[in-house]
Amino acid sequence: LTPTRDGFSCPLHHSAFSLDGKVTRPPAKIDLVRFAVSTDENNHLIVDVSKRIERAQFNKPGAYVEAPAA
After folding, report:
1. What's the pTM?
2. Is 31 exposed, middle or buried, given 0-12, 13-18 or 19+ CB atoms closer than 10 A?
3. How far apart are CA 4 and CA 18, in angstroms?
């Protein structure tokens, strides 16, 4: 996926997605999947693909990480 001003685009199939992963332009038929995320002691992003986060849980800890302070 390629980040865009208002979401993401797929250069292979030309689908587009909103910032929260909803399909905004087919041919994609389903929204993007969100997985549990965390950071390690070196501030590396860790994505746990064994833990899918459902839309109702998007605002819960583990569904996102805060951006590091600049």
Report:
1. 0.70
2. middle
3. 9
